[in-house]
From TrEMBL:
UniProt-recorded name of the protein: CASP-like protein
Superkingdom, taxonomy of origin: Eukaryota
Transmembrane segments: 31-49, 69-90, 102-128, 148-170
Record key words, sorted: Cell membrane, Membrane, Transmembrane, Transmembrane helix
Organism encoding this protein: Chenopodium quinoa (Quinoa)
Length: 198
């Protein structure tokens, strides 16, 4: 196999010969990136099928903006998980731009899914407990099936968030342990110092 030259931290150049260890790490990361996709799809399907009709009326996830956001966030995360798993599975030498892209997108998706889970948790809590201060009565006594499915979907979403938090740690470790931080070069240090002293 041909050796690939990889620039490493500190200016050191290392040769990567695509050993079994590298292949197994890439396979593990690919599978770990696919895990949230399955969980996102499960949370999405549970919420999409979440509606209940009884003598008091009907209730669907589309009646609540938080649950619509949860569905959209899970759909976006599932798509990103699939795309990132495909990109990870393709053997290529690591580059700084690829590491930064994974780092930023993993961070972004972690916060998107965290926000979806948090806002949906608040709605589920209000559905179970109500809020007497604003005369919002508990709805789960009347729409128990709806509340149960919503709780399941929100719980799965928080498991997805934990997966994305772990992926964020992996991508940040890969970025900051392998590459030096960007440096700025200025030709006139005296001018920079004068700015701070005036």
């Amino acid at each position: 196999m041909a050796e690939k030259i990889i620039p490493m931290k500190g200016g050191v150049v290392a040769a990567d010969n695509e050993s079994g260890r590298t292949t197994s790490m890439r396979t593990a990361e690919t599978l770990f990136r696919l895990l949230p996709m399955g969980l996102c799809v499960a949370a999405l399907i549970v919420m999409l099928k979440n509606s209940q009709t009884n003598d008091f009326g009907s209730l669907s996830y589309t009646n609540l903006g938080a649950f619509k956001y949860l569905v959209h966030a899970n759909g976006i995360c599932a798509g990103y998980s699939l795309l990132s798993a495909v990109v990870t599975a393709i053997p290529r030498p690591p580059t700084m731009s690829r590491a930064w892209t994974f780092f930023l997108l993993d961070q972004l998706l972690t916060y998107i899914i965290l926000a979806a889970g948090a806002v949906s948790t608040e709605v589920v809590y209000l559905a179970y407990k109500g809020d007497t201060a604003i005369t919002w009565s508990a709805a789960c006594g009347t729409f128990g099936g709806f509340c149960h499915k919503a709780t399941v979907s929100v719980s799965i979403t928080f498991v997805v968030m934990l997966c994305y938090a772990a992926l964020s740690l992996i991508s940040s470790y890969r970025l900051f342990s392998r590459f030096d931080p960007p440096t700025t070069h200025s030709g006139n240090k005296a001018a920079e110092m004068d700015v701070f002293h005036t």
